[in-house]
Amino acid sequence: MNSNDPNYSPLRDVAQNPEATARYLADVQRVLLDISKNLETLALETRVHLRGMNVEGDRWYHARLRAMPVEKALGQVLRNLKNLTEGLEKSAYKRRAHDEAVVNTAKDRKEKELEKQRKKNPSVLQAAPNPPQQGAQSENSGYGAPTSIYDLGKRESA
């Protein structure tokens, strides 16, 4: 594409290719994980600093109570960031699965069409050979004609 084109978007090429999408999302995820490490360190240092700020006349828990809203907000940011990185990974897998589903759709449709054709026009089954007549049966025919266990003759039972 031409970068002078007013409709040009660099992410359009990335969106059209599942491998490029996966690479892009992995890069974004890597950056977010680095940010996450920094935010975890910031949250820990903020907690230590805020809980250490005592005002004259405070009881032992007052500094902790004042620090809790800030700690909670930073914890929520970290949770949201973790969910965001997991969502990026999941969306990369879903993007690849979508392309595979599109490729398999044409094949599935052809198979369904062939199955419909088979149901509409069933193939002619070959007729089973006729069993030999009772009188024409030889001694070694095996299971040719139904017999009773009492009428085995010269054959042995199982």
Task: Explain how this protein is built.
This protein is mostly helical and 158 residues long. Helix content is 63%, strand content 0%. It contains 3 helices and no strands. α1 packs across α2 and α2 packs antiparallel against α3. The protein is elongated.
Radius of gyration: 38 Å
Order of helices and strands: HHH
Number of strands: 0
Structural class: mainly alpha
Identify low-pLDDT runs.
Answer: none
Percentage of residues assigned to helices: 55-70%
Separate helix tally: 3
Q: Give the amount of beta strand, in percent.
A: under 5%
Shape, per Cα inertia axes? elongated
Q: What is the end-to-end distance? A: 80 Å
Report on the biggest sheet: none
Mean pLDDT metric: 84
